[in-house]
Amino acid sequence: MVSEAHIQIAPSVLAADFSNLGQQGREATEAGADLIHVDVMDGRFVPNISLGEVVVDAIRRSTHLPLNIHLMIAEPDQLLPSFIKASTDQIIVHAEACTHLHRTLAHIADVGAIAGVALNPHTPADVISHVRDLLGIVLVMTVSPGFGGQAYIHAMEPKIAEVAALLDGYDCDIEVDGGINADNVKTVTEAG
Ligand code: ZN
After folding, report:
1. How confident is the model at residue 3 (pLDDT cuts 50, 70, 90)?
2. Which of 2, 9, 115, 165 is deepest in the core (most CB within 10 A)?
3. Strand positions, DSSP E, the chain
4. Ligand 1 mean position, distance from CA 170 (Å)
5. DSSP element (H, E) containing 26
6. pTM score, two decimals?
């Protein structure tokens, strides 16, 4: 169980009006968001293309909130330097996209960013076992990544609990992404 004091809200930039990103960033800040979640899609790891480092840089300039950058991209090592240039707040890569996950996370941590790993719904929780010391965030996907507006997968709640158990004693946040709403936020947070 986590207390409510530890819950942070990270609205996704995908829900924003891209013709007015600066204003949208300010509105999310004023509405009390804790972080801005930036979904980067490459058209390879996931079916859609969303935005690249130029837009991340623009979002960075529109808010003082930390950017929680979720890289849904294949072979993220190649593009990491560009995203690190745009923002070094929090950078999350997918376990499924990294051949050398430990090295990639170490690279992110070395530049002073909080390193995170995202797990697709089918990916077992224990892939984080041997990289826990590098992690500041474990992102449990509660939908398959790539589209907005998908239905939340309830079967992810036992996995959230498994991740929480694996992170016992580690200074690492658990993030959930996809289909979170007022109806399920209570059971999600109770899971861990
Ligand atoms: Zn995301």
Report:
1. very low
2. 115
3. 36-41, 67-72, 90-94, 114-119, 137-141, 173-177
4. 23
5. helix 21-30
6. 0.94
